[in-house]
Fold each of these.
Amino acid sequence: MRALLMIGEGRLEMDDIAMPDVREGWALVRTVASAAGLFHTQMVKGMLDTGGLPRILGHEIVGEIVEAGSPASPSPGTLVVADAVVGCGVCEWCIRGEDSICPWMHHLGIDLDGGFAEYVLVPEANIFPLPSDIRLEEAVMLSSAVPATVHAVSRVGVDAGMRVAVSGVGSIGFSVCQVAKAFGATTIVAADVSDGQLEAVAPWVDATVNVGGMTPAEADAAIREAGGVEHGFDVGFETAGHPSSVATTIKVLRPGGRAMMMGICDGQTAISFDSYLAEFVRREVSLVTTFGFTRHDFLVGNALYLAGRLDVSPLVGPTVALEDVPATLAHIAEHGTGGKRYVVDVGMGAG
Ligand SMILES: [Zn+2]
C-alpha cells in the first residue's frame, strides 16, 4: 500500500509498504481522508514520542471498513470516522470512560500508525459509522475538532439557559460557540482581536466584541456589557492561548462560575491578580482543563452534526493529495492554517 512515512526528525517520505496484518479486536479500514494542521508540523519536528520509526502520522481518519470481527462492527463498505485515542482498557481512567487521560494511552497517528496511508488498523471499539452521502471534507472535522469541542463543553457543564463567554474564536472557539448553543446556552458572547473571525461566528452568537488593545479589565467590562450580563457569565472558554485572554476569561465569570482553559499558552505562564483574594479566591470560581476526547464525545458530536446543529464547513480548508503533505506542512509552518484544517485526500475518489 502507499504510505507517507515519518523516517526521522523533519523527514517524511512516500513509500510502498506491506498492508498491516489484521489483529483480533481491530478493524482494517481503507483510508478515505485525513487532515493536516499545525499539530503535524510539530509532530514532524519530534514534539511527541512516535514509539519508533518509521511511523505513519495522521490522527484524523475517515475511511471505509474492509474487515472487522465483532458482530457489533459496521459491515464492510460502511463509511466510518475513527477515534484515534486508544486507551489501555484496563486502568481506572478507562473504566470511568476517561480514555483521553489514560496514563497507558496510545494514539493512532502519533505512536501507532495512522491515516497517512491507504489502509489503517483501528480498534473496533473506536469506529463510528457515518451516512454514505456525507460530505467527506466535513466528515474529517468529526474526527477531532468536533469531539474535542464536545469534550470541553461537556466537562465544564454547559447546560440549558446558561450564559457563556468565549475568548478566542479561531476554529476551536468557533466550534465551542456552536456546541454550547446546542447544549442549551442561551446567551453567548464571542471575543477576539480579529474582525474577520468575529464576523464568521456572528450568526451563532448573541454578541461579538473586538478586544484588541484592551486590558483584561476593559475586555471584561466590554464583554459583560455586550451580553447584558452585569454579574458575570456562568461559563467562560479560553481558546486563544494567551495570558491576557486567560485573565479575561477568569474575570468575566459570575461568582461560582467555571472557566474552561482550552488554549495552549507558550511555555511558562503566570496568571496575575491585583487582589488574589478579591478577584479569585472569594469568588469561588472553578478552572477546568481539557485534553482530547472520549468515545462518548463522538456519539454526541456526530449526532449534533447529522441533526444539522453544527456547521463545520467554515473549518474546512483546501484539499491536498497524500504525496503533497510534506509541502503542505512546510507551508503551514510558515503561514499557519487561517483557522482551517487542510483535508488530505488519501482515497476520496476510490471505493
Ligand atoms: Zn487505561
Note: Residues 87-88, 90-91, 93-94, 102, 104 surround zinc ion (CB under 6 Å).
Amino acid sequence: MDQPLRPRHWPRASYDPHYDPLVDAGPGHNRDYAPTYWIGTAGPAPVDDGPISGDTDADVVVIGSGYTGLSCAIHLAKEHGIKARVLEANTVAWGCSTRNGGQAQISSGRLKRSQWIERWGVDVAKKMHVEICEAFDLFRDLIGSGEFDCEPQDGGHFYIAHKPGVMPVLEKETKLLNETFGYGARMVSREELHENHVRDQEAAGAVHEPDGIGVHAAKLAFGYQNLARKLGAKIHPGSPVMGWKTVGGVHHLTTPGGTVRAKAVAIATAGYTPEGLTSYTNHRLMPILSNSIVTRPLDEAEKEACGFTTRSPLTDTRTLRHYYRFLPDDRVQIGSRSAVTGKDAENPRHLALLQEGLYRKFPALRDIDLDYSWWGWVDVSHDMMPRIFQPDPEQTIFYAMGYGGNGVMYSAQAGRRMAQMVAGKGQGLDLPIFTSQLPSHGILTPFRRMGQRFMYVWYHIRDERL
Ligand SMILES: Cc1cc2nc3c(=O)[nH]c(=O)nc-3n(C[C@H](O)[C@H](O)[C@H](O)COP(=O)(O)OP(=O)(O)OC[C@H]3O[C@@H](n4cnc5c(N)ncnc54)[C@H](O)[C@@H]3O)c2cc1C
C-alpha cells in the first residue's frame, strides 16, 4: 500500500491524540478539540459557564457534555424544572459529539430488528421500534425548533450492500422491517442507486430508510449547549470529575477547581468513561476507535464521476462498516474502524486503510487531497445495545451510554429518558434498555483487546473474502 497522503489538519498534541480510556486515568483536563472538519467549520464555540471554581451545591450534576449530557440538561430544565450543572473534563462536547460522522439513523446500538426479535421476542421488539421512532421525532423537533442551525440534510439513509452476497440478507431484513414493524424501507437496485443517488462502485444495491439525516456534528453540539444554557443549566468545561464519595446520600464530586455536592448524578461519559469513575460503569463498555477523513471540495469532473446527487447519510454492510457522506460544501467524508489502542491511533496504516476504502468506492478520488483526519472512541456495550439505567435504587446515580456508534440521533432521547428517571418519573419505562444494567465483560475483561484483534481479522475475512 502506498504511503498515505498527510491531511492538512492533522491531530495536534494539545488534544492528546493518544488518549486511551482503558489505559489512562481520565480524559484529561482542559484539552483542545480534536482537529475535526466540524470544529474547523463550526465557527467559535459558544459561551459557557467556565470551570468550577470553589465548592458549590447542585440539585443534579451531569458528568460529560456531549449530546447525551446536554440533552439531559435540556430536558431536566424543559420538562422537570431542574437546572443542572454539567461538568466536562475538557472543552464542551470534546468527545464523540464533535468527532462523529453526523449521521442520524433510525437505530441505536448495533443490533438489527431481526436480532431484537431473537433476543426479546416480537412484542418487546415492536415496543423498542416505537421508542426509536419517538426518538427520531424528538431529534427532528430539536433540530427543527429554530433554536440553532446544524445544517440538516434530510433525505433518508442508504444502507449499501458492499457485495452481491449480502443482497438476500438485506432483502429479508427489509421485508421484516416493513411487514412486522410497519416501516417504509425500500430496496434500491445498483442501477437505480447509480443513476439517481450515488455511483458507489462497490454497491450491489441498497436499502433506503426514509428516516436519515446528515447534520453538522459540532453545530448540533453547540446548538444543544446554547439551548441548555438558555433553559438555565450551567455548563462547566475544564472540570473533570476526579474523585467521588457519597455521604448521607449527597454526592461529593471533586474537580480541580472545587467540589460539587449534588443530590443526584447523571453520567453521560460514553466511550470516554474512565475506568475508575464509579463501580457501576467499570468494565461495562468497550471503547472502540473509529477514524474519519474529509477530502478537499470535489471539482465538477469528480462530482460527475462519483454521481453524488444525494447528500443523505450512507453506510455499507461491512461489519467494520464505512459511513460516508457528500457534505454541503462538496467534500466527501468517510469513516470506519481505526487502531485498537490509543497509542497506535496515529499509525499511518489506519489512515491508508480508510483511504483505500474511499478509493474502492470512488476510484475517481484516488490520491485526492485530504483536508481533515481525526478519530474518537465509540462506546460499544457487551450486548451491542445502550442502557439508560439507575443501577442501584438506593442511590441517586443514573447513566446513559452504549450506543455502539449509533448515538447521534438516539442520544437526544437517551438524555431525555435519563432526565425523566432523575426527576423520579421513570416508572413507565419498561423496555430492557431501561430495566437492566450494561452487561459486564466479567472474566473477559483482561482479554478484551486480544479478542478485538482476533475479531477484526475474522470480520475482515468475512467482509472481504467470503
Ligand atoms: C469517529 C466517530 C464517528 C461516529 N459517527 C457516528 C454517526 O455518524 N452516527 C451516529 O449515530 N453515531 C456516530 N458516532 C457515535 C456518536 O458520536 C456518539 O454515540 C455520541 O456522540 C455519544 O455522545 P455522548 O454525549 O454520549 O458522549 P461523548 O460525546 O463522547 O461525551 C462524553 C464526554 O464525557 C467527558 N468525560 C469523560 N469523563 C469525564 C469526567 N471524569 N469528568 C468530566 N467529563 C468527563 C468527555 O470528555 C466527553 O466530552 C461516531 C463516533 C465516533 C468516535
Note: The chain is about 30% helix and 20% strand.
